[in-house]
Amino acid sequence: MSPPLEQVCDVVVVGAGPAGLAAAAAASGAGRRVIVLDQGIRPGGQIWRHRDRSALPTAAHHLMNEAKRSVIIPGARVIDGRSPHDLLVDVGGVAHRVRATALVIATGARERFVPFPGWTLPGVVGIGGLQALIKSGLDVKGARIVIAGTGPLLLPVAATAARAGANVRIVAEQVPFRRLARFGLSMLGRPRAIAQAIRYRIAFRHSSFATDSWILRAEGSSAVNTVLLRRGGAVEHVACDWLATSAGLIPDTELAQLFGCAIGNDAIVVDAEQGTSVAGVWAAGECTGVAGDAAAIVEGTIAGAAAAGSNAVTPRARRHQESGRAFARRLELTFAPRPELLALADATTVLCRCEDIAVGAIDPSWSQRQAKLWTRVGMGECQGAVCGPACQSLFGWTLNRPRAPLGTPRCATWADALQHANPDDAR
Amino acid sequence: MTGRVRLVINGAPHDVADDLSVAAALFNLGIMAFRADGSGHPRAPLCGMGTCFECRVTIDGVANSRACLALVRNGMTVETTT
């Protein structure tokens, strides 16, 4: 049954990952009526998107249970709003209007892709992308997979692939061994994270893990079949069916930017209550800085309580919030993409995958706006979601604020949404 | 326990598990090209989570539907645009 076209509640949460679910649990626990809007097929976000719900961790079960007090609308994407408290939402092509007195943004993170030759071949996917596909049913049994990227995400994804029966050929981390070792030492105060990392490593124990290693190019005709990997000082050819690669995670701040929330260091700026620079708007989880699910749950709880006007935050949650932020900064410093990754593309390498614009078509001295006007870079279906961050990395551009509608709705949906927003114009 | 559903992909019927995303179903059937770029080169999902739009196919007649965000359903028609 589809929900009514107009909905009113106290708190609307965008995103049903760990942060969004925690925010919904806190706000509904304080007696507020909560609606959660989520783009996915099922709640849980990217990390808890398993089709096999029994495979979910305890924290996920607990939050999903708590979330039953809220109305969760899957397949829902906010495309615009007259204000942060009057949202226009695309639910499976049907426009909805959702009004609330408080908004919690928990849109998570997405992957940063930096173009390299061959990255448009089928079989080349993100690292989180591979995990998302496996969790939604991709069969990788016996498939040869190369995983090359950066940061802690490499480990759970390699473990997921190995447990699903894949032949993980190699897991390549671009960061040099010494820097990774320093990061490892800094984690000694977090024994649970260390234990988790060891469990992941055991799951892909038959594969090698290489530091100081990254992808130079992918080759193949109808799909990827070989990658050139720089490993230490040498170049290796590795045969594979899938290449999972990315240059790390970036906060998803589009919705926050649409409503004018301040952004700093590519993340939504929040205060101690997870409040943004816009009154009545809170943000939590990786859209405020990438620090993992534990930090996201703490931030979501704080944001949900604040949005509900309750002051139920414990000193322990405060400590976890602070250490989560410190962890986000450490991750960012440790796993920043190395300069070599920015020099892999040649002039013919595709930059904008939607509009088929090559790197060589762009003059780096242009602004993003000039580049759009002259080449249509970033003007296709994804609206620059992929090439925008790539241009930022490659050319040092400052990206423009996104404009409505977000997420490329169908024309009919957008027209309906506008009618919702201005019902007087419809007659 | 999962059931099975019948998809019609590019005109041909295929029975698949009922809890797959359309993207996973296509890949599992060996369909690696979801669409073609302007020069006819094959393209397929990159991000796996609905951001990159490389998974766009026609689902039940609706063009530019994201295969990564859609769950399979009995009787669903899917057309790749290669």
What structural class results from the helix and strand content of chain B?
Answer: mainly beta
Amino-to-carboxy terminus distance of chain B: 34 Å
Which pair of protein chains has the largest interface, and what are the residue counts?
A-B, 40 and 36 residues
Class from secondary-structure proportions of chain A: alpha/beta
Global shape of chain B: globular
Q: Approximately how much beta-strand content do the residues of chain A carry? A: 15-25%
> What coarse outline of chain A follows from CA principal-axis ratios?
globular
Task: Give a description of the structure.
Chain A is an alpha/beta fold and 427 residues long. Chain A is 31% helix and 23% strand. In chain A, strand 3, helix 2 and strand 4 form a beta-alpha-beta unit. In chain B, 9% of the residues lie in helices and 34% in strands. In chain B, strand 1 and strand 2 (12-17) form a beta hairpin.
How would you sum up this structure in a few lines?
Helix content of chain A is 31%, strand content 23%. Chain A has 427 residues and is of the alpha/beta class.
Write the layout of secondary structure elements.
The complex is a heterodimer of chains A (427) and B (82).
Chain A: E1 6-8, E2 11-14, H1 18-29, E3 34-37, H2 58-66, E4 71-73, E5 76-83, E6 86-91, E7 94-99, E8 102-105, E9 109-111, E10 124-125, H3 127-135, E11 144-149, H4 154-163, E12 167-173, H5 177-186, H6 191-203, E13 208-210, E14 213-220, E15 224-231, E16 234-239, E17 242-245, E18 249-251, H7 254-258, E19 263-264, E20 267-268, E21 281-283, H8 293-307, H9 315-334, E22 350-352, E23 357-358, H10 368-375, H11 387-395, H12 411-421
Parallel strand pairs in A: 1-7, 2-3, 2-8, 3-4, 8-21, 10-17, 11-12, 11-17, 12-13
Antiparallel strand pairs in A: 5-6, 6-7, 9-18, 14-15, 15-16, 19-20, 22-23
Helix pairs in contact in A: 1-2, 1-8, 3-4, 4-6, 8-9
Chain B: E1 4-9, E2 12-17, H1 22-28, E3 35-36, E4 42-43, E5 56-59, E6 62-66, E7 77-79
Parallel strand pairs in B: 1-7
Antiparallel strand pairs in B: 1-2, 3-4, 5-6, 5-7
